[in-house]
Amino acid sequence: MTLSAEQQAVLRSIRQLVDFWQISAQELASDSAVAPPVEQAEPPSAPKYRHPKSGETWDGVGPQPQWLKDALIREGYLVEELRINP
Known about the structure:
The protein has helices at 5-21, 25-29, 66-73, 79-82, and strands at residues 49-50, 57-58. With 86 residues, it is mainly alpha-helical. The protein has two domains: 1-33, no CATH class; 49-82, no CATH class. It has a two-stranded antiparallel sheet with strand order 1-2.
């Protein structure tokens, strides 16, 4: 198999980097040398609660937002009134 000039230049660069960083053939062949896969972020949950006037929403995950606390305590809404029906 004949390599192009570009491929030969790339191989030289790779060999220089391997020598510089003192990477062994075992490390090159090892799966542990490969970076672990990046975890995919979960898509945000669909909103479960909505303020009828402001339209603000909350997905029910994490602490209650201030708008929800205010709606329940100060504005007199019931949880069921703010719940979005599926």
